[in-house]
């Protein structure tokens, strides 16, 4: 029940941010670009018949892949109906994807209610909001067609390193999603093959407030399940401490992005 309530809040916050999302999401845009290239390379000899996208947002990844897989049947989903509307609108502005068969659906990617199998399941920067990342991925792998590919990015451990360290030093319990160590999580999986690589992206801000505002503007400011926001006085001290970590008048936020490719085709035994 509490989880349902939390997810409704998450969807609402992303919905409110949907219109302005693209003004403040350079990291997400760059990550979508790299993920799209990885997918195209991986599927260069195997055009997917059916594609499922999870957490489409405003459609950064969708728009990068659609022209390339324009003959596929697409199911494009997000937990926020407002994000879906913006995604739909953005796609309608693209001239080269008119012929594609696209179905839009409001759906929680952790509890997919879909039938049939998919040759490609993809997602950019949404899985960090899952409560059970590994369990959800295992569920999604079962939706893959033989030799299908599940390709996603998520925020890895170490993201917002300095901000987290400041909270630790002030004995403040960290708010927001828990960034798991993706490599450790998949260190002993033998049901499907997993390929992970990690890349750091940096975003500079004028102040700690600017950093927090940038998260709010894209809707990524939900506290974790069952957490209350930091009290205003404590937050002011935390922002001051965060700013004191930098000497040139800007603050730096690091995004550790894991690019994960899962395939239900197991590696050849030797
Ligand atoms: C940071 S945005 C990324 C959006 C887009 N994929 C991009 O590359 O810009 C995260 C998106 O994931 C969606 N989301 C969060 N949790 C989700 C869930 N459990 N199932 C489906 N979508 C979810 C949000 O509504 C939001 O649109």
TrEMBL record:
Q: Which Gene3D superfamilies match?
A: Vaccinia Virus protein VP39 (3.40.50.150)
Q: What GO molecular functions are on record for this protein?
A: methyltransferase activity
In its keyword annotation, does this UniProt entry include Transport?
A: no
UniProt KW keywords: Methyltransferase, Transferase
Q: Where is the Methyltransferase type domain?
A: 52-150
InterPro entries this protein is in? Methyltransf_12, SAM-dependent_MTases_sf
- Pfam families recorded for this chain? Methyltransf_12
The Gene Ontology biological process terms listed for this entry are: methylation
Could you tell me what this protein is called? Answer: Methyltransferase
Q: Name its species.
A: Kiloniella laminariae
């Amino acid at each position: 029940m509490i989880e349902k309530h939390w997810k409704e809040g998450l969807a609402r916050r992303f919905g409110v941010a949907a219109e302005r999302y693209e003004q403040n999401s350079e990291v997400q845009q760059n990550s979508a670009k790299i993920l799209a290239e990885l997918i195209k390379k991986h599927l260069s000899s195997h055009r997917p018949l059916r594609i499922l996208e999870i957490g489409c947002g405003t459609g950064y990844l969708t728009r990068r892949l659609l022209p390339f897989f324009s003959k596929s049947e697409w199911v494009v989903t997000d937990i926020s109906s407002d994000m879906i509307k913006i995604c739909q609108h953005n796609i309608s502005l693209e001239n080269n994807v008119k012929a594609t068969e696209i179905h839009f659906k409001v759906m929680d990617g952790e509890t997919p209610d879909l039938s049939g199998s998919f040759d490609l399941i993809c997602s950019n920067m949404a899985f960090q909001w899952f409560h059970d990342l590994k369990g959800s991925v295992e569920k999604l792998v079962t939706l893959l067609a033989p030799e299908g590919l599940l390709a996603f990015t998520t925020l890895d451990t170490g993201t917002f390193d300095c901000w987290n360290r400041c909270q630790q030093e002030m004995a403040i319990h960290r708010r927001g999603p828990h960034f798991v160590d993706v490599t450790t999580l998949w260190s002993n999986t033998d049901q499907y093959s997993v390929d992970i690589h990690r890349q750091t992206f940096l975003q500079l801000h004028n102040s700690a407030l600017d950093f927090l505002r940038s998260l709010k503007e894209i809707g990524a400011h939900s506290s974790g399940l069952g957490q209350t926001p930091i009290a205003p006085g404590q937050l002011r001290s935390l922002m001051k401490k965060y700013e004191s970590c930098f000497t040139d008048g800007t603050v730096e936020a690091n995004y550790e992005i894991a690019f994960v490719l899962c395939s239900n085709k197991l590696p050849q035994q030797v």
